[in-house]
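Bumping with the actual sequence this time:
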Amino acid sequence: MDEKRAESFRKELEALQAKVSFSAEWNSISDLVLDFYNSNPGANSSELRRYFGKIVPERTAQLELSVFRRMDEIRDLANTFYSDLGDQVTRDLPLIKRVEDLAKLKLGDYERETIKDMVKITKQSLAQKLPIKEFSGKLKKLGGKVNTYADSIAITQVKSMGRAAKAEKANSALVFDYQVIGVLRSTSRQFCIDTVGKHFHIDEINKLDNGAGQPKPVLIYWGGWRCHHEAEPDPFYKKKNFFVPGGSIFGI
């Protein structure tokens, strides 16, 4: 059901995006300039520049208005498709995507109706940024086996929500190097012991495996259930490369 909702939302967004075309607007400006030149064959470069300077603000103002109208329509779409997530979340489209992605995590073997309830609680709790204790408390109300694993689910999902947001910002800022941070304890997994304190490029992280039965991807869930370690984007880390004759590169 959620996949159908996401697909419908995507199609509606694409239809809205098609209404705003920067290339089409530029082509329109170019056509106006050419029309002016054809109508005024004797116009010099100064006159062309004045005309160009006159129409560009007019056209960009129209484009700006169109863009803001589309933004309003997108917010309306979000309100329509994701009203169940809360009142504020519908203004944050990246948050909707993070919630939907994390809600796909296999939570364990439960009755179908129980899973539906768990997914609903997870989505609403993440979207509304509820504290772990409150999130866990909502899950525990479902009773049964859920009560046993509620804390693990809540801790894992809330931590992963933060990791996902951090990864999005790093990607937008073109930061691809990470350092794994967090305190190691006697109960820490071997995967975490082997990685905490080290630097990894995003391509290396994508190849890591945190073990069977642990949620993935590693960048979002790092060591797995209840893990408090995470990959912190490091914009200042640069691997030193030395060029040698023949075009080879040695990194240290």
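The tokens above came from a reply further down the thread. Residues 240-252 have pLDDT under 50 and may be disordered.
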